[in-house]
């Protein structure tokens, strides 16, 4: 993904300009990769990394190879540009199917919880839905992977607590940063990454691709307008701060003037509501 | 003719009404559900259409009544033992079935973990567009009836309005704490309809083995009073002063990211872009400068009082009342004053004149 600190928007189409923006690996994705590499070390699985993006995204793929991924695929084509999450998940689902044809069955797909630019968290569920995979989002711990029973047990972190869920493979997981600590590349890894040429797939490599479902055309959402929000300004009434007691009395007067003690139920009249 | 713009007309007259997904756990609705019903009511009224709610779960009968009280005209309820815990497959199947049957023009979910998980699956299945994490929702009246879904982008530096012209329903997830619930009205009447769950436990691969509720979590999103502190507190000890003030007012303690990052207080207290969006009746910003990433999370508070020793601090552009001074002097004095007046039960302005503002 592009480094969101340097992002720009195409004023004509209101889509992201990914060209010329330094590419970094989305930070949640690194946690997904880390977990995949741990499972590889335990079970001998094969780890393939895929990304859809403009050619500079190659650099991010090399980073993933340096960390220990077996191969990396860049899916790139002008036709894919301007994709929203629906179109992105379509192409990524097609890519995963093609990965299966090339290297064998995919049992687990790791995504980040969200990206740092679009920040929707919708691409993971979109891919799972298209490939009919079980879906485990917001994963904070992979507790068990059982290749024989073909089950996965994970901890999920939600707003109000933590959940343990078990389901069957094939499964798609989206990673939280709590999932693990990302390793650093070893020196041989760095050299391997440096020399590695990612595999490149374009629309031509997907014979059954439905062109109406990709890129801007395949994206139901349209960014109609962007603007810089004006700071919501209010006029501040100053309360005397020269002496703490005066300030405290002033603040309390303000609360009482606004009828808050009654509306908050501190004092008589507490039943009065809004 | 040059540059003829191709205008395609779609007939969406078969799609009417606004549908809100009511998220619950163990029979307790998330506050965002009622906030969305409030906003949904405004949108439905503007479109001269009806507002629907859907509740899925284990023991949730009572939530149908609540949804009506918070503004729904019609509530779809699906109750079954296998629906007790949220799981993507059975919930999304049910939602698909409902959406295909009632053809709403707009469907809204809370931008919670569950809301995003569910909405992402449904939008792909339908398929339709899904706008993420919106903070402003409006509609264009007839004939377009478009949902104008606006969301922050690029670390809140920008806003973007996103449309879904060629697909129905138009779907969005919306941030908690941004919209206002309507006051509960138990006199409202509405229709309650039942949905059949067509999946049995055996058809569902995912099993929820346990759920541990986070007991330490302060409920910032539901709090009516928040006393928040920042780097100006200088260390963890000063949070004791804030706790005392919060306690005197029946509130909870919030914090800026600087205070959280310094390790003075837990992340569950953080207000702002990467913390919680809150909308309490009363918000104290104490020793907080007012960076945009903080203010996006709290500027919807009804009344904001800032205490800062720097008169130029940006927080004063958001505060209704400002005190320039040292928090170590002012906070304890304020706590004492609140306690004193509460005890005295000072008469309200409203008791002398009319009730209400
Ligand atoms: C201002 C603005 C607002 C936008 N809002 C919306 C919106 O509300 N709804 C919408 O549908 N689109 C929206 N888009 C388009 C969206 O940004 C793009 O579709 C984007 O490519 C998808 O990224 P995301 O951040 O939504 O992905 P997320 O769903 O947040 O990403 C989650 C994970 O999916 C995987 N992933 C995502 N993209 C790729 C990829 N290209 N290659 C490999 N893996 C990937 C990664 O593992 C990532 O960690 C918006 C675009 C702009 C410019
Ligand atoms: C991607 C991103 C996400 C972020 N998300 C969040 C977020 O969710 N929430 C958040 O809060 N921030 C967030 N931030 C950080 C934000 O930009 C600011 O750095 C942070 O809010 C500053 O915290 P502060 O106001 O407590 O500290 P400071 O800016 O250091 O302000 C301290 C204030 O205390 C005052 N002060 C000092 N001593 C006293 C005293 N004795 N009495 C009274 N006043 C005193 C000072 O005058 C000053 O105004 C985010 C930043 C980034 C880049």
What is the secondary structure topology, with strand pairs?
The complex is a heterodimer of chains A (274) and B (357).
Chain A: E1 8-9, E2 16-17, H1 27-43, E3 48-52, H2 58-67, E4 71-75, H3 85-103, E5 108-112, H4 123-131, E6 134-146, E7 151-158, E8 161-168, E9 171-175, H5 187-195, E10 199-201, E11 221-227, E12 237-239, H6 244-257, H7 260-263
Parallel strand pairs in A: 3-4, 4-10, 5-9, 6-9
Antiparallel strand pairs in A: 1-2, 6-7, 7-8
Helix pairs in contact in A: 2-5, 3-4
Chain B: E1 18-22, E2 24-25, E3 28-29, H1 31-46, E4 51-57, H2 61-69, E5 74-79, H3 88-102, E6 106-110, H4 113-125, E7 130-134, E8 136-139, E9 147-153, E10 158-164, E11 170-174, E12 191-194, E13 207-213, E14 225-229, H5 239-248, E15 252-255, H6 257-261, E16 282-286, H7 292-298, E17 303-308, E18 321-324, H8 327-344, H9 349-352
Parallel strand pairs in B: 1-4, 1-6, 4-5, 5-12, 6-11, 7-11, 14-15, 14-16, 16-17, 17-18
Antiparallel strand pairs in B: 2-3, 8-9, 9-10
Helix pairs in contact in B: 3-4, 5-8
């Amino acid at each position: 993904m592009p480094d969101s600190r340097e992002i720009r928007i195409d004023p004509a189409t209101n889509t992201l300009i990914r060209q010329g923006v330094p590419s970094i690996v989305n930070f949640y994705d690194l946690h997904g990769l880390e977990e995949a590499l741990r499972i590889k070390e335990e079970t001998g699985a094969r780890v393939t990394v895929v990304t859809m993006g403009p050619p500079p995204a190659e650099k991010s793929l090399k980073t993933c190879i340096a960390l220990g991924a077996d191969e990396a695929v860049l899916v790139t084509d002008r036709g894919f540009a301007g994709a929203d999450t629906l179109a992105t998940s379509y192409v990524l689902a097609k890519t995963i199917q093609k990965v299966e044809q090339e290297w064998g069955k995919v049992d687990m797909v790791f995504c980040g919880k969200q990206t740092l630019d679009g920040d929707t968290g919708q691409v993971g569920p979109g891919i799972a839905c298209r490939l009919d995979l079980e879906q485990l989002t917001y994963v904070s711990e992979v507790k068990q992977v059982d290749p024989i029973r073909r089950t996965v047990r994970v901890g999920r972190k939600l707003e109000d607590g933590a959940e343990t869920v078990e389901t069957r493979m094939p499964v798609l997981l989206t990673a939280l940063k709590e999932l693990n600590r990302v390793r650093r590349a070893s020196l041989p890894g760095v050299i391997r990454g440096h020399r590695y040429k990612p595999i490149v797939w374009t629309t031509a490599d997907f014979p059954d691709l439905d062109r109406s479902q990709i890129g801007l055309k395949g994206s139901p959402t349209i960014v109609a307008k962007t603007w810089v929000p004006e700071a919501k300004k209010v006029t501040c009434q100053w309360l005397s701060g020269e002496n703490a007691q005066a300030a405290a009395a002033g603040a309390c007067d303000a609360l009482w003037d606004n009828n808050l003690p009654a509306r908050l139920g501190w004092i008589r009249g507490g039943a009065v509501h809004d | 003719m040059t540059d003829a713009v191709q205008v395609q007309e779609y007939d969406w007259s078969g799609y009417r009404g606004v549908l809100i997904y009511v998220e619950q756990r163990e029979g307790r609705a998330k506050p965002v559900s009622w906030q969305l019903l409030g906003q949904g009511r405004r949108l439905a009224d503007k479109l001269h259409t009806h507002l629907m709610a859907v509740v899925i779960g284990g023991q949730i009968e009572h939530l149908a009544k609540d949804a009506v009280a918070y503004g729904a005209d019609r509530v779809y309820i699906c109750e079954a033992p296998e629906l007790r815990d949220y799981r993507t497959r059975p919930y999304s199947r049910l939602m698909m079935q409902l959406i295909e049957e009632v053809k709403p023009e707009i469907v809204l979910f809370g931008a919670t973990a569950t809301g995003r998980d569910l909405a992402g699956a449904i939008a792909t299945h339908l398929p339709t567009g899904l706008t993420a994490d919106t903070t402003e929702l409006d509609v264009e009246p007839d004939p377009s009836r478009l949902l104008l879904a606006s969301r922050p982008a690029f670390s809140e530096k920008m806003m973007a309005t996103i449309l879904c012209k060629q697909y129905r329903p138009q779907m969005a997830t919306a941030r908690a704490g941004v919209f206002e619930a309507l006051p509960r009205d138990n006199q409202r009447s509405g229709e309650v309809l039942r949905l059949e769950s067509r999946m049995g436990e055996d058809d569902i691969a995912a099993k929820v083995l346990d759920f541990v509720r986070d007991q330490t979590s302060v409920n910032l999103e539901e709090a009516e009073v928040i006393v928040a502190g920042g780097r100006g507190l200088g260390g963890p000890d000063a949070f004791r002063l804030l706790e005392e003030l919060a306690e005197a007012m029946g509130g909870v303690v919030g914090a800026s990211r600087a205070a959280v990052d310094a390790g003075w207080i837990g992340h569950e207290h953080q207000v702002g872009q990467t913390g919680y969006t809150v909308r309490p009746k009363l918000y104290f910003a104490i020793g907080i400068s007012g960076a945009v990433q903080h203010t996006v999370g709290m500027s919807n508070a009804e009344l904001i009082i800032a205490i800062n020793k720097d008169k130029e601090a940006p927080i004063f552009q958001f505060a209704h009342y400002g005190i320039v001074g040292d928090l170590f002097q002012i906070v304890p004095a304020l706590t004492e004053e609140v306690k004193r007046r509460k005890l005295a039960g000072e008469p309200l302005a409203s008791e002398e004149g009319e009730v209400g503002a």
